[in-house]
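Morning run. Coffee first, then this:
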Amino acid sequence: MLKVQNLSMRMGDRLIQEQISFEVEPGTIFAILGISGCGKSTLLRHLVGLLEPAGGTIHYDAVDYWASDDAARLGLRAGFGVLFQSGALWSSMSVLDNVLLPLAQQASLDAAAREARARETLSWLGMESFADFRPADLSGGMTKRAGLARAIAPQPRLLFLDEPSAGLDPSSAKHLDDLILEIRQRTGCAILMVTHDLPSIFAVADDCIFLDTDSKRPIAHGKPSSLRDAPAHPTVTAFLHRQDVVTP
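And here it is:
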């Protein structure tokens, strides 16, 4: 579904990461790991088409995203759902209207069908009674769920989550993990998540890649529990065991 090959990311003359390669299979949950500041969220912005890579390729269903024209890219993005770290809800709109936004681009649904889909999605995530609330009236956990409802309402084939549990208490984070697993089970979509939350990593991720700050490239790739339990790069081992990461 998603294939990244030798991706390089730069901000001006500064190298962020290079030699990034991985694949995300349908129905799997893939995590991008690393110490804060290593470029995890920057990689996600490259994957969803907000930033063009300095090198390498990103393929969706064997289509080279950045080699495609604008119309083809738009068609590919129609299959994405994205939850940004802040929720990125429009403050001037109700929760329901926020969820309706991406559905407006689905020509196969009339206005009544779009509202029914939006309300059904909010109900699934336990947010039906907050449909008329503004984002400012929501708690952190409810804001995440509202953003998640907006991301999955169009029924995407690939769901991107940027630090989904950031700022949440342990109970809310656990509930969000359960929702992520339920979304995968009910929809069959593939999920790519950026996170440094260890309980979430081990609870939901099937596969992961670890971006290193010092070498500016991936230094581990595999199932999170396997990287934790088997000999790995010292930085990865320290990270997955909640130990101090010692850098040269």
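The chain has a mean pLDDT of 89. Good start to the day.
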